[in-house]
Design goal:
Rossmann fold, 198 residues, binds guanosine-5'-monophosphate, single chain, alpha/beta, binds adenosine-5'-diphosphate
Length: 198
């Protein structure tokens, strides 16, 4: 059985990560999308346990104390973290794991697990990012500005990622992500079992 790989998807809030990943998950099988824990309030249409595990701050802190997170970070006034056990269980089953996490969390995961593949998703322009964030309608203008400010900082780390995908159209972005995941499984180190039999 081929081992699963972990893929980190980072990028500014509102760039379209959730939208693109939803479509990617319909296309690629044997992939586990990691459901994060967060202290942020659910948005309309978000379901506990599906989009996030919605926790209060005390519960989030108790998960930290019990070492239940692979990584966690603060982002625009809320905590976000990746529960370790589901990620490990999926990898044991040979599934690829996708983590939709911001850049501080990405650094933590890569220092613990250097074979993680990091992909940065960018918008076609800043104007378009602002338009998507505003038109999503989930954040008040103050929060939109905070998220845009954070996006500027996140962009400065984009060159440290393994891949840079532009979400101009959902189809283009999904095609590129799909190609990256396939290519990562074609590396010789992923196929040592076959190579060593020759
Ligand atoms: P993120 O998960 O990165 O915060 P979302 O997936 O919630 O972003 O997308 C933010 C908004 O942008 C949503 O309203 C979504 O429908 C829209 N969107 C996503 N991708 C595209 C795209 N390629 N073109 C136009 N709008 C998009
Ligand atoms: P949102 O509030 O828009 O759902 O997410 C805000 C930011 O938090 C996004 O950049 C998203 O990638 C990031 N995020 C979501 N889950 C996690 C997580 O478990 N850990 C970290 N570090 N970031 C996360």
């Amino acid at each position: 059985m081929q081992k699963g790989k972990t893929f980190i998807i980072s990028g500014p809030s509102g760039v379209g990560k959730s939208t693109v990943l939803k479509s990617l998950l319909e296309r690629r099988k044997n992939v586990y999308f990691s459901v994060s824990a967060t202290t942020r309030a659910p948005r309309d249409g978000e379901t506990d346990g599906v989009h996030y595990h919605f926790l209060d701050v005390d519960t989030f802190r108790s998960w930290i104390a019990r070492d239940e997170f692979l990584e966690y970070a603060e982002y625009v006034g809320n905590f976000y973290g990746t529960p370790k056990k589901f990620v490990d269980a999926a990898m044991e089953e040979g599934k690829d794991v996708i983590l939709d996490i911001e850049v501080q969390g990405a650094i933590q995961v890569c220092s613990k697990r250097p074979d993680t593949v990091r992909i940065f998703i960018a918008p076609p322009s800043w104007e378009e990012l602002e338009r998507r964030l505003t038109e999503r309608g989930t954040d008040d203008p103050d929060k939109v500005q905070k998220r845009l400010l954070r996006a500027k900082v996140e962009f400065q780390t984009a060159h440290t990622y393994d891949y840079f995908v532009i979400n101009d159209t959902v189809e283009n972005a999904v095609n590129e992500l799909d190609a990256i995941m396939t290519a990562e499984h074609c590396k010789p180190q992923e196929r040592m079992e076959i190579i060593s039999q020759q």
